[in-house]
């Protein structure tokens, strides 16, 4: 299997659409931690876009969204969005990784591109980092993260990562990582502690230690085996 084929296979493993999530689990998450969302309160542009999709797209249609190189620091590619995935967004239901990536594209175009913000922030691809991928392809995830961090090894930069956790309840969390300061900010809408996911924590700790070694950074003995994790209330 070629490297390109392996990458595609691994990426598909991490796609939210391929991860079975029972409706009961979704309902538990929403009932326990979230207020019901009403589509009546959606902005007018969302309703207009929904009407346009209803008219112009068949159920089997897809739309390709160009993801330029600067968004995730990788080669330009096309993100494919199906009509079903668009309705996930319109109806405030559980969304997949492609929808998240397209939203990141929007944030990149509106707040990052053509500004000085790229010196301070970067996005990591949720196609390449998820709990599924950490469990199945640890070396793949580690290599990707270290490579992205080393591009800015002499800059204090925050890396933003939407991260999908598929069990016991499927949901998205948000990481903001400062590799040089070795601080990981963790935001979970279900209020779960990061210690609930030991493989995830171990991977992120290992990545920052490998990054530290690659840039020959010196740290105190107290800091050597301790990466700072900060749980942010959301």
Automatic annotation (TrEMBL):
Record region (Disordered): 1-41
Organism superkingdom: Eukaryota
Residue stretches of biased makeup (Basic and acidic residues): 1-12
InterPro entries found in the cross-reference section: Papain-like_cys_pep_sf
Protein name (record): Ulp1 protease family, carboxy-terminal domain protein
Organism in which the protein naturally occurs: Medicago truncatula
